[in-house]
Design brief:
This protein has seven helices and six strands. By secondary structure, it is an alpha+beta fold. Helix content is about 50%, strand content about 15%. The relative contact order is 0.15. The protein has two domains: about 140 residues, no CATH class; about 110 residues, Umud Fragment, subunit A. The chain is elongated. A six-stranded antiparallel sheet has the order 1-2-6-3-4-5.
Length: about 270
Amino acid sequence: MSGYDWYIFFLCLVVFTLLTGLFSVMLYYVIKLTIKAINHGLEDERIITEYQKNKARGCFSDILCRIVSGILLAVILAAFAASVFVQLSGNYIGRGFSAPKVVMSASMSFKHEENTYLEEHGLNDQFDTFDLVFLEQLPGEFELELYDIVVYDYHGELVIHRIVGIEEPNEKHPDCRYFKLQGDASKYMDEFPVLYEQMRACYNGKHIKFVGSFFAFMQSPAGYLCILLVLFAVFATPVAEKKLLQAKLARLTEIGVIQFEEQAMEVV
């Protein structure tokens, strides 16, 4: 990761620590006050009604809730893992390694009217901002052809543009080709010719519309915080529920609604 990425990471970590600390304190006092109200009989009517409804439904609803919660957690973790994979693979695109990449620019989103070669050659492989494009291994330098779409490194940023001109080796550069690149939506070519050493991958023509916006959000500070807070809630909620359940069952036993043995079974 770059220095900026590390800065964002630690900033999110600090914010997450503060938010979870504040949330934990609030949750602690809410549980404490609720248990106090239960012990003093202020919640008797509610917990008796709740117990009777749960008993009538049986254990099937609890099992169903746990299954749904497990599925949701698995989906969230899978989505987070996918976003991390997309981010890391984008940072390590190289020869022999293919990967998905989120498009963060509109430079290839449409055909500029002055780029007549696009219509002349039937080049309809444009993609928009936040599309997820799929990249493949970069071919050899002399295997690249006019109008191929490649990814190249420009001062640490990955740019995906089309080859619109190739200058073969000559007296000025006898050992390499110069590639002129341009976005389909741009009127002008990129400022400097690109060398093969700057290139990282080649676009294989496949992309998924707009799904990259999800991955872009997941890779943002807001996305990091959402994932961390969801994970915290997943682990904190059962602890809070168990404490409240113990207090409710103890109160129901005390007022004679259930027997002690039944309370022990409910807690287990």
